[in-house]
Task: structure prediction
Amino acid sequence: MKNVSFLSKRTAAAVSAIAIGFAIPASFVAAPAPVEAAAGDLDRAVAALRGISTMKADFTQTDRNGQTVSGVMTLKRPGRIRFEYAKGVPMLVVSNGKSMYLVDYEVNQVQRWPIQNSPLGALLDPSRDVKKYGRLVNTDHPDVVSVQVRDTTHPEYGVITLIFTRKTGAPGGLELTHWVALDSQNHRTTVRLRNHRYGVEVADSAFTFRDPRRAARR
Result:
């Protein structure tokens, strides 16, 4: 197993990409989808996100160096999400609906970002962001829908691109399979989801965290 200190330093930027903002890599920015397809698929993507009340999924996160970490993502409307990393990665990303927190238990630090105006709201609150700032990106595959969400008035917020696969039984007939991130330092991160579980019972306490700064002050 890799040294935890080395691992956490290498993954810190990738974890931060989840918390701060998202962007689509150049390989996905092809031609825009046809107008007649865009309206229907964008509506279906919004319906798919709105249709998720709670969800758990296993995730795998890969950075530009090919380093991979994994864990479990938990989502609950409105606005709450938790990325619980596997043993050996002493970090946690969690949103309580108002702010996103990156908790580093190795160095006893907590970073916070507001999510109110972030493109991350496209995942956490689709009624606010997807229809206003979203557009389809042509994937050249009839069963794949890619939605890029960008607030052009605030480029510093970044961009999130959500990629769905058509699937019967998933909310809205689309299942969110992954997204691709590119932060301001040109660090690319891919987050892939699998083993989706919809409508699971999730306590509100899942979106709180133990503050390591309190222990450090003792």
Remarks:
- The domain at 4-195 is CATH 2.50.20.10 (outer membrane lipoprotein receptor (LolB), chain A).
- Residues 70 and 77 are 23 Å apart (CA to CA).
- The two ends are 31 Å apart (CA to CA).
- Confidence is low (pLDDT under 50) at residues 1-8, 20-31.
